[in-house]
Design goal:
CATH architecture: 3-Layer(aba) Sandwich
Family: Belongs to the QueC family.
Number of strands: 5
Binding site for ATP: 9-19
Helix content: 40-55%
CATH superfamily: HUPs
Protein name: 7-cyano-7-deazaguanine synthase
Structural class: alpha/beta
Organism: Clostridium cibarium
Bound molecules: zinc ion
Low-confidence stretches: none
InterPro entries: QueC, Rossmann-like_a/b/a_fold
Strand order of the largest sheet: 3-2-1-4-5
Order of helices and strands: EHEHEHHEHEHHH
Radius of gyration: 17 Å
Length: 219
């Protein structure tokens, strides 16, 4: 049984929790971060720092071409971060991003002799990204296996849990404070609890408050 895994890792709450999950499940873990010229270089720095602290082999792949294809609020200063209107996609959406990231992660995984690929995508906090859905991940798993004649296993530990349960998972590893203080989710590039006002901070904080309250209630 191959116990080597590649984690798609952005340095945010979700992928850091996935990294801890992978460190528990697998003997050898490699983290891969994509540089697509994010507005906030801090995201890459943050991911690098965490990987270093945890002693995880870390690769940063250059995906700047993504910005050529899909200019959006995460990469361009002149586009504001906005929630989707009328059920539309938010302005942070990069078309096909997860598909591309997972495909490149798979190429790296095969080069490294790893069969397992972990991604923090989640259908519960579904903000309309079609390539975060479970059905897509299953479909891509089949496609990658056929494309490279290799048996990848795509893992999505967060697929069916909400933000509060993601905090609970980090806590179950004894890493709640680590994830809370060291990760970057904020669209304004502020580490830890963030700016407190952008959509990512609001979602993150709501989940944390909900989890801490339920934990308190269970005492
Ligand atoms: Zn924020």
């Amino acid at each position: 049984m191959n116990k080597k895994a590649v984690v798609v890792f952005s340095g945010g709450q979700d992928s850091t929790t996935c990294l801890f999950w992978a460190l528990k499940e697998f003997d050898e873990v490699i983290a891969v971060t994509f540089n697509y010229n994010q507005k906030h270089k801090k995201e890459i720095e943050c991911a690098t720092e965490i990987a270093k602290e945890l002693g995880v082999e870390h690769h940063i792949l250059d995906m700047e071409l993504l910005n050529q294809l899909a200019p959006n609020a995460l990469t361009r200063d002149d586009i504001k971060i906005e929630a989707g209107k009328d059920g539309g996609l938010p302005s942070t959406f990069v078309e096909g991003r997860n598909m591309l990231f997972l495909t490149f992660a798979a190429v790296l995984a095969k080069v490294k002799g790893a069969r397992h690929i972990i991604t923090g995508v989640c259908e519960t906090d579904f903000s309309g990204y079609p390539d975060c859905r479970d059905v897509f991940i299953k479909s891509l798993n089949v496609t990658l296996n056929l494309a490279m004649d290799y048996e990848f296993v795509l893992h999505t530990p967060l697929m069916w849990i909400d933000k509060a349960q993601t905090w609970e998972m980090a806590d179950s590893f004894g890493k709640l404070d680590y994830v809370r203080n060291k990760t970057l989710t904020c669209y304004n590039g502020i580490i830890g609890d963030g700016c407190g006002e952008c959509p990512a901070c609001l979602l993150r904080r709501r989940g944390l408050e909900q989890y801490l309250k339920s934990k308190e209630g269970n005492k």
